Amino acid sequence: MTKEEFLDDMTVILDQEDTVAMDAVLADIEEWDSLAYLMFQSKMLERGCRKVRAEDVKQAKTIGDLYALVQ
């Protein structure tokens, strides 16, 4: 999956009007919650990425950190 595809997916998951950036801080995104986490896991599995541990996601600070987890 390319960075652009990942960012497009995250934009939809986070219900943002503008495309999110890799350096966007998750704590600053109101929509990043448990439902968004489940949607993230589901979409990444759908795309054939490896399953990400919840502990690793909790440690992620930015969208880019999430991208690194699925690579």
Description:
With 71 residues, the chain is mainly α. It has one domain: Non-ribosomal Peptide Synthetase Peptidyl Carrier Protein, Chain A (Orthogonal Bundle), CATH 1.10.1200.10. Helix content is 54%, strand content 0%. The chain has four helices and no strands. The longest helix has 13 residues.
Low-pLDDT regions: none
Number of domains: 1
β-strand number = 0
The number of distinct helices, counting runs of at least 4 residues, comes to 4
Question: What coarse outline follows from CA principal-axis ratios?
Answer: globular
CATH fold node name: Non-ribosomal Peptide Synthetase Peptidyl Carrier Protein, Chain A
Overall pLDDT level = 95
Helix content: 40-55%
CATH classification class: Mainly Alpha
Order of helices and strands: HHHH
The CATH superfamily is: ACP-like
**Class based on secondary structure composition and strand pairing:** mainly alpha
Summed up:
By secondary structure, the chain is mostly helical. It has 4 helices and no strands.
Helix and strand topology:
Blueprint: H1 3-13, H2 34-46, H3 54-59, H4 63-70
List keywords for this structure.
mainly alpha, 71 residues, Non-ribosomal Peptide Synthetase Peptidyl Carrier Protein, Chain A, globular, single chain
